[in-house]
Automatic annotation (TrEMBL):
<keyword id="KW-0732">Signal</keyword>
<feature type="domain" description="Glucose-methanol-choline oxidoreductase N-terminal">
    <location>
        <begin position="119"/>
        <end position="142"/>
    </location>
</feature>
<dbReference type="Pfam" id="PF00732">
    <property type="entry name" value="GMC_oxred_N"/>
</dbReference>
<protein>
    <submittedName>
        <fullName>Protein HOTHEAD-like isoform X1</fullName>
    </submittedName>
</protein>
<dbReference type="InterPro" id="IPR000172">
    <property type="entry name" value="GMC_OxRdtase_N"/>
</dbReference>
<dbReference type="InterPro" id="IPR036188">
    <property type="entry name" value="FAD/NAD-bd_sf"/>
</dbReference>
<keyword id="KW-0274">FAD</keyword>
<feature type="signal peptide">
    <location>
        <begin position="1"/>
        <end position="26"/>
    </location>
</feature>
<keyword id="KW-0285">Flavoprotein</keyword>
<dbReference type="Pfam" id="PF05199">
    <property type="entry name" value="GMC_oxred_C"/>
</dbReference>
<feature type="domain" description="Glucose-methanol-choline oxidoreductase N-terminal">
    <location>
        <begin position="281"/>
        <end position="295"/>
    </location>
</feature>
<dbReference type="InterPro" id="IPR012132">
    <property type="entry name" value="GMC_OxRdtase"/>
</dbReference>
<comment type="similarity">
    <text>Belongs to the GMC oxidoreductase family.</text>
</comment>
<dbReference type="InterPro" id="IPR007867">
    <property type="entry name" value="GMC_OxRtase_C"/>
</dbReference>
<dbReference type="InterPro" id="IPR051871">
    <property type="entry name" value="GMC_Oxidoreductase-Related"/>
</dbReference>
């Protein structure tokens, strides 16, 4: 292989592993008549519920609440309908890697030295993820204390609107067969359920490759009772206290794209049923609580947050991100464009997923890595040098990979970290530490997961898509030469899978925690010690549900929306 081809192959590997990870009226472009730009917002004071974040949970929640209450949704990003082709399956990689200032994907780098992204668009992570749809495991539902019949109905409500059965073709079929040969049995066919073995899950891509997102759930909304403001960045939750009584949320302050500040307040401040609900995600929800004076008092005071409303030491704690480790397999045969369809749910706590033929723009990849370098300089993280690699990229090319990527994701995980303020700008990234593989059990699961991937690669079922003579262990080592994260590489990684797991860890974008049930919110997702304030999103989770969390998060929005409406009716 000559140098030029090796350089392109290295680039394919790098980009392929970046991207793995989860009754209203509208016109043909999906422009809902209740959707407006925040710059047109007056000061507002007539809503029963203010939902902060029109993402994976927020859209489902707001659509449900609007059936019997007035709802204001404040979304900091724009509309996915502004560029519909950007959400098509063929543009998946480019959309995720586009982290320019007004893009839908906001880059951040953890204190662990791992690249990550946050969604900033109506529909949240469902606009930029790999589209796989699989329900939470039964134990997760039981531990959450959710009513099973209502959970089932909420799932079906979501699935009717945005979920499809994928068309399984050559590469995904070979991957499925390889999983079964590797012992990830039995084969459970096509199912949304979380069951041990190999299965085909759902997808939010339709048969034509068009993505359907949580934003589509707003089609269920009552257009006369909901307003969605885009480019509305919430800066602070407003509280009132009477005497020595508990603080009560009564509104928010938000900023539009032009820098103008607006106030939104609940309609009847003396009503105990009206609420502010945070659905801003696992990064922004704990960050916004802190910026509003709810969090560890000493930390808030150190950043000049005044007043401190409630000293809440557990806000920002329990942050976790399921570690992912990839293997890139160049193919001698053409492969179809596919994201996650087949998945191996192992008995030992690792999930095996894969995709193929990912199309990408090298210019966007370079822009992504330039963004990484800029963040590193800004946050003073210690990093590896990637300038030599960047200079080697041919920016004139747009290419598609003739290859597959297989990844292992550790369930749980048990390793936990924390989130802290870096400054008081809600649009800036806070400091996040996930402590990947700090827990030995997580590390053991990674080793078993990678060992299973090696078996898949060397299986008869997968052999058509692997060059003769290449070994699974040898393909793992290709990753070691690439800047897939900012962590140091150790010589022992070439033969020690535990060290390989630590050195090559990446995100699959399933981070959670920071406002956990029992620590920051109660079982009804009400913030402890505060009235009229809930958090309903993945920040409340103690672990990530199932193989991919988007199904459970959309379901949670619907489930809690209905529960809140029942409480309202009963009152």
């Amino acid at each position: 292989m000559d140098f030029h081809n090796f350089r392109l192959l290295s680039h394919f590997i790098l980009v392929a592993v970046f991207i793995f990870h989860d009754s209203c009226y509208s016109d043909e472009a999906g422009n809902y008549r209740f959707m407006k730009d925040a710059a047109s917002a007056p000061n507002l004071s007539h809503f029963d519920y203010i939902v902060v974040g029109g993402g994976t949970a927020g859209c489902a929640l707001a659509a449900t609440l609007s059936q019997n209450a007035t709802v204001l949704v404040l979304e900091r990003g724009g509309s996915p309908y502004d560029d519909p082709t950007a959400t098509d399956i063929g543009n998946f990689a480019n959309t995720l890697l586009n982290t320019t200032p007004n893009s839908w994907s906001q880059l951040f780098v953890t204190e662990d030295g791992v690249y990550n992204s946050r969604a900033r668009v109506l529909g949240g992570g469902t606009v930029i993820n790999a589209g796989f749809y699989s329900r939470a495991e039964e134990d997760f539902v039981a531990e959450a204390g959710w009513e099973r019949d209502e959970v089932e109905a909420a799932y079906e409500w979501v699935e009717k609107k945005v979920v499809f059965e994928p068309q399984v073709k050559g590469w995904q079929s070979a991957f499925r067969d390889g999983l079964l040969e590797a012992g990830v049995t039995p084969f459970n066919g096509f199912t949304y359920e979380h069951v041990v073995g190999t299965k085909i899950g759902g997808t939010i891509f339709d048969p034509d490759g068009h993505r359907h997102t949580a934003a589509n759930l707003l089609e269920y909304a009552n257009p006369d009772k909901i307003v969605v403001y885009l480019h509305a960045s919430v800066h602070k939750i407003l509280f009132t206290t009477k005497g020595n009584g508990r603080p009560k949320a009564y509104g928010v302050i938000f900023q539009d794209a032009g820098g103008v500040y607006h106030t939104a307040e609940l309609g009847t401040q003396d009503s105990i049923m009206n609420e502010v609900i945070l659905s801003a995600g696992a990064i922004a929800s704990p960050q916004l609580l802190m910026l509003s004076g709810v969090g560890p008092a000493a930390h808030l005071a150190a950043h000049g947050v005044n007043p401190v409303i409630v000293d809440h030491p557990m806000v920002g704690q329990g942050m976790a991100d399921n570690p992912m480790n990839p293997v890139f397999i160049p193919s001698p045969e053409p492969v179809e464009v596919s994201l996650v369809q087949a998945v191996g749910i192992t008995k030992f706590g690792s999930y095996i997923e894969g995709g193929s033929a990912l199309s990408l723009s090298i210019s966007l990849t370079r822009s992504f890595l330039d963004g990484v370098l800029n963040l590193v300089k800004k946050t003073k993280l210690r990093t590896l040098s990637i300038s030599t690699f960047l200079n080697s990229l041919d920016l004139r090319l747009n290419v598609a990979t003739k290859a597959g990527v297989i990844i292992q994701k550790v369930n749980g995980p048990l390793s936990r970290g924390h989130l802290e303020l870096r400054n008081t700008d809600p649009d800036d990234n806070p400091s996040v530490t996930f402590n990947y593989y700090q827990n030995q059990e997580d590390l053991n699961k990674c080793v078993e997961g990678l060992s299973t991937i090696i078996k898949v690669i060397e299986s008869k079922g997968y052999s058509k898509y692997k060059y003769p003579g290449s070994s699974g262990r040898g393909l793992l080592n290709l990753i070691l030469a690439l800047p897939t994260n900012l962590r140091a590489r150790h010589i022992t990684s070439a033969f020690d899978l535990k060290q390989f797991c630590k050195d090559t860890v990446m995100t699959i974008y399933h981070y959670h925690g920071g406002c956990q049930v029992g620590k920051v919110v109660d079982n009804d997702y009400k913030v402890l010690g505060i009235d009229a304030l809930r958090v309903i999103d993945g920040s409340t989770f103690l672990k990530s549900p199932g193989t991919n969390p988007q199904a459970a998060i959309m379901m949670l929005g619907r489930y809690m929306g209905q529960k809140i409406l029942r409480e309202r009716t009963a009152f």
